[in-house]
Specification:
alpha+beta
């Protein structure tokens, strides 16, 4: 007898508790032994995910509830990783839409819900974090209904079930305050509301690959959903490539999911999610079908990238000291490998052999790629992020973002002034009378580059910023560049406390004493708009003469810690971020001060154009 199956994806805005809820579902389903040692957020297996507390890659798991197998896909909550969500929704028949009972629906909630409703998936609404002191479940539920109506949901989709959960303690309620102490109401609702998968186990084989994994023993693993037919181990099948060609291959091993493990299977029927081993060269979006009667599925359609950055080899004087992979051939091979698993990225050649243009969804997605490469031993340099500009019917268009800023009431004026200078238009302002205000803006994607750090500085770290691609609009013209210049080292050497003490009043330093520097390396941010060449290696002259000021104590202001994201946001058009396994440095593209063009003329021209 075939086991009943339900396929669901958990979708939500970043940090609303998706992975924590999956944790609780796994623990209460009896997957783990009683004495098994567990970590929190077991689905966030990637080091970067655990450090940042966010989900970056969509992952599969499965639990069993009363003889029903529930395949669960945990998805990222950040809009930069929207390509992962789009693929995950292709594998499932319904979605758990998780919303914070205090914050309410935010941009990514809107984005993932829009995709789920367009795919005609059955939603189950889950209001999480009901234990928060500022929880307002009734008001948030009204906001969710407004969002459904705004997204043109059908009457059937509007008739969604609602559950109230505290994922941290693993409790779900049908009504707030009922006597439930487990997630049983949630499991029952999934089995009752999510339709069983369609598809005939005896029909023509149709499988679509939505994700790739790698095993040291089995090679490339294709994670796919069986839409129709039955896949058996050892059978000859056809792979329908993205270009339309058919490639015969033999299935060597099949696996189904159970908790965090994969169980080997002899056959998998329509409706289930499967990992297929031994299929070399297969890519995301390709179909596996019957060899005699091929019936390939439509390839996956992923939203276009909106941001581009130049990746190039490290040409600084310190190149090759810390990294293992430093050549353009290494860089090209690594980017091509990334394209296999990350379908929302694009890589284009530039006019030179050692530089590549990488296109993605946002700064965070590209920063995660750079950080991953850095940890793998790569050395590279990256340029300032730029937006992708399209030309349609003779008109230049650029991406437009919906930006939501949540900040204390006292900073409304500062936020509006800053976003006004970046061509942002306010669409809506909501005051929940809790001391904080939520503002919605339409703003060109260019206006978001470098915005986060500046906004956090201006609001003393209290602002919450979320954005979502809204569409394309006419190119808005030039925009003001960074208003400050850089303090640039004028010679190689080791930074000295005495030299920094004399320079620090000119601006904010990025390097402390005892750091090796080279000519053209950026040591800090100048308080004025032009660049200043400084000697950070100057030592105090020794003398026998005594004076009242000679032994004055040197007090240094701690340097600003430049993380990868901060560095990418800071750099101007004539600068690079140098990334190595141990260091992140900022530098000018032209290291020699005599050959370097003056920057203040470009800045003044850009400010005049934007005003």
């Amino acid at each position: 007898m075939t086991t009943p199956v339900r396929n669901i994806a958990i979708i939500a805005h970043v940090d609303h508790g998706k992975t924590t809820l999956v944790d609780a579902m796994l623990r209460q389903s009896g997957i783990f032994r009683e004495n098994q040692e567990l970590i929190t957020r077991v689905m966030d297996s990637n080091d970067l995910e655990r450090e940042r507390g966010i989900t970056i890659l969509a992952k599969n798991t499965a639990i069993t509830y009363q003889d029903t197998k529930i395949n669960i896909v945990d998805t990222p909550g950040h809009s930069d990783f929207g390509g992962e969500v789009e693929r995950a929704l292709r594998m499932v028949d319904g979605v758990l839409v998780l919303v914070d009972a205090s914050e309410g629906p935010l941009p990514q909630t809107r984005y993932v819900l829009q995709k789920a409703l367009a795919a005609k998936l059955q939603p189950i609404m889950v209001l999480n974090k009901i234990d928060r002191p500022d929880a307002r479940p009734a008001a948030v539920l009204d906001e969710i209904y407004d969002l459904f109506i705004d997204l043109d949901a059908t009457e059937d989709q509007l008739d969604f079930p609602v559950l109230y959960t505290n994922a941290k303690t693993g409790v779900a309620h049908r009504k707030i305050g009922d006597d439930s102490t487990t997630l049983q109401p949630l499991f029952e609702q999934i089995v009752a509301s999510i339709p069983p998968p369609a598809g005939d186990p005896k029909g023509i084989l149709q499988i679509q690959v939505t994700n790739l994994d790698y095993s040291d023993f089995l090679g490339r693993l294709a994670i796919a959903r069986v839409f129709q037919g039955t896949l058996k181990r050892g059978t000859e099948v056809a792979i329908s490539k993205l270009d339309g060609t058919i490639q015969p291959t033999k299935i060597t091993k099949l696996f189904t999911f159970r908790g965090l493990e994969r169980d080997e299977a002899e056959q998998v029927e329509a409706g289930d999610i499967v990992a297929i081993a031994g299929v070399e060269g297969i890519q995301i979006g390709e179909s596996i079908t019957d060899l005699a009667n091929p019936a390939p599925l439509e390839p996956l359609v992923i939203d276009e990238p909106t941001l581009t950055m130049v990746f190039t080899i490290n040409t600084s004087p310190f190149a090759g000291r810390e990294g293992q992979f430093v050549t353009s051939r290494d860089l090209r091979a690594r980017l091509e490998k990334e394209l296999l698993t990350n379908v929302s990225l694009r890589v284009e050649d530039t006019g030179t052999m050692d530089a590549f243009r990488v296109l993605g969804r946002g700064e965070l997605q590209l920063a995660i790629l750079i950080e991953t490469m850095r940890r793998e031993g790569y050395e590279l340099m990256v340029g300032k992020p730029e937006i992708v500009v399209r030309t349609e019917n003779g008109r230049r268009t650029e991406p437009l973002e919906l930006l939501i800023v949540d900040c204390p009431e006292s900073f409304i004026g500062i936020v509006m002034e800053l976003l006004g200078s970046r061509r942002g238009e306010m669409k809506k302002m909501v005051n929940h009378h809790s001391g904080r205000v939520r503002m919605e803006f339409s703003i060109p994607s260019r206006g978001l580059i470098g915005l986060r750090s500046q906004l956090l500085t201006d609001t003393r770290g209290t602002a919450l910023i979320h954005s979502l691609l809204e569409g394309w609009t006419d190119y808005a013209g030039d925009m003001a560049m960074r208003p400050t210049g850089a303090l640039v080292c004028d010679r190689a050497g080791v930074s000295v406390a005495y030299a920094i003490w004399g320079i620090q009043e000119r601006g904010e330093m990025f390097v402390g004493p005892g750091i090796e520097v080279y000519e053209g390396m950026i040591a800090g941010e100048n308080a004025r708009e032009d660049d200043m060449n400084v000697n950070i290696t100057k030592e105090k002259k020794q003398t026998n003469m005594r004076s009242s000021s000679a032994d004055e104590a040197i007090r240094l202001i701690p340097p600003r810690d430049m993380t990868l994201e901060k560095a990418i946001e800071f750099i101007a058009d004539d600068e690079y971020v140098e990334v190595t396994p141990k260091s992140i440095r900022l530098r000018k593209k032209v290291l020699d001060a005599k050959k370097r063009p003056k920057r203040w003329q470009e800045i003044r021209a850009s400010v005049d154009a934007s005003s």
